[in-house]
Amino acid sequence: MCGRYASVKGPSELAEEFQAVDATDGAAPGADFNVAPTRPVLAVVQRHPRDADGTPDPDTTVRSLRVMRWGLIPSWAKDASTGNRLINARAESAADKPAYRKALARRRCLLPADGWYEWRAEDGRKQPFFLTRADGGSLALAGLWEFWRPEPDAELVFSTAVVTTDAVGPLADIHDRMPLVLPPEAWAKWLDPDDTDVAELLVPPAETLVAGLELRPVSTRVNDVRNEGPDLVDRVEPKPPAQTMLEL
After folding, report:
1. Which CATH number do you get for residue 111?
2. Nearest alpha-carbon partner for 22 in 57, 70, 63, 68
3. Are strands 139-148 and 108-113 parallel, antiparallel or unpaired?
4. Which letter does DSSP use for residue 56 in this model?
5. How far apart, in Å, do the first and last CA atoms of the chain sit?
6. Where are the alpha helices (H) located in the chain, listed in sequence order?
7. Which of 46, 144, 164, 210 has the most CB atoms less than 10 A away?
8. C-alpha to C-alpha distance for 87 and 1, rounded to whole angstroms
9. How far is 229 from 140, CA to CA, in rounded Å?
10. Which tens digit of pLDDT belongs to each residue from 147-192?
């Protein structure tokens, strides 16, 4: 699954890395080492530009960096709280779920991340790990996005969910699920708004991609969403469990 990740790079750097136009209009969130659901996040989308009358240009698409709310709010939702539960979409079933199937067909995005957190149960406690690219580059988490209008004349709310899949290789020792991380060669197909069949991409990432990830134990401070700062992703070796008097 994916319930927390880090997004540190600014919009200009990400726009260059993902070959996109910065369309955040000054609303981009700052560096966040502990991104939690319902917070604003950066997303890369590709859409047909529209003219002054709202008519899309069928011959052109523009890739842009946008701000969205993490927690997908379906267009039919009665209120925004529906999105609080829809932070992850399973790759195996998204096409069959009413909340996700339209977005999977037409509204896919990439969520740039410096890494994500997973927790492993160890001796009655949960040890957090940070998973990041060993070379320091951004990860492209596959995402779905939707738009929702709370009232007829209100502004649209754009929201997103992370697509998850089975964990691969050593990551499976931490958790059985992981975000669907897409390599650069898959970005164009995933973002193409005219391509409605991306089944070939809804599979666990290649072991070669996973081999390029660093998996490091980090401080349990990340457990609290109120904690923030670069120290959250620093390697912190877990303390051995305390021995009881019976074990001494």
Report:
1. 3.90.1680.10
2. 63
3. antiparallel
4. B
5. 38
6. 11-17, 101-106, 184-191, 207-211
7. 144
8. 9
9. 22
10. 999 888 888 999 999 999 999 999 999 999 999 999 999 999 999 9
With beta carbons less than 8 A apart as the criterion, state whether 34 and 6 touch. Answer: yes
Q: Residue 129, SS3? A: strand
Q: Kindly tell me the number of DSSP H helices and DSSP E strands found in the chain.
A: 4, 13
Identify the CA nearest to 131 among candidates 225, 17, 3: 3
C-alpha span between 207 and 135 (Å, rounded): 16
Q: What is the pLDDT of residue 239?
A: 75
**Do 108 and 191 contact (CB within 8 A), yes or no?**
yes
Token couple for 24: 């955040």
Per the structure block, which two tokens stand in for 54?
Answer: 């709202």
> Would 111 be classed as within a structural domain?
yes
Query: If we measure between CA atoms, which residue out of 2, 148, 158, 7 comes closest to residue 88?
Result: 2
Tokens found for residue 48: 């047909």
Mean of per-residue pLDDT scores for the chain: 93
The answer as to whether 186 is a domain residue is yes
190 and 142 Cβ atoms separated by less than 8 Å: yes
Domain limits for position 97: 5-233
Cα–Cα distance for residue pair 4/175, rounded to 1 Å: 14
Tokens of 235: 């390697």
**Cα(238)–Cα(93) distance, integer angstroms:** 36
